[in-house]
Amino acid sequence: MKFARVFPSPFVSQTLHEPPGPTPSAAETFERFWKRLQVRFTHCLCRQRGQLPHFLIRGHLDATSCVISQPLTGEVQVDKSDVPIKSIELQLVRVETCGCAEGYARDATEIQNIQIAEGDVGHGLPIPVHMVFPRLFTCPTLETTNFKVEFEINVVVILQDDHLITENFPLKLCRV
């Protein structure tokens, strides 16, 4: 899954796909969509637009359906940032949802946080992502009628002026 963030503006987004080629099957289209998704955020009119620094951060995750015994891999690359970067982190979050007649209760718990870069990183240099899933705090993704255990990965960039940039990706974990 590829991603790119251009700031300022968390409000307006558009999805960009690869240029069209030969007509693929529905399964190939779905697989290509999830593996090569790019999200690009553009300018919008908002009160705080002048306070938000400009930046361009790109990257990709090699898969969002992961075998629990294999690491999550990919890379992040800072192409442009008006403000120096303090750190880049990966957060693994477990999301538990319970449902009953009264409604649903959702609880998100951070189970792992890895700092993959510290200080102002070189622009244009790829930063590798390599996260091993913690054995005691992860399990295969589970979804039943009244109960769900899901996982998400957050890529968090903290700027020197304490602006926080985050991108969230749902993960599906399985055991083989």
UniProtKB/TrEMBL annotation:
One of the GO BP terms on file: intracellular protein transport
Stored InterPro entries: Arrestin-like_C, Vps26-related
Pfam families, sorted: Vps26
The family this protein is said to belong to: Belongs to the VPS26 family.
Record's protein name: Uncharacterized protein
Record organism: Xiphophorus couchianus
Organism lineage: Eukaryota, Metazoa, Chordata, Craniata, Vertebrata
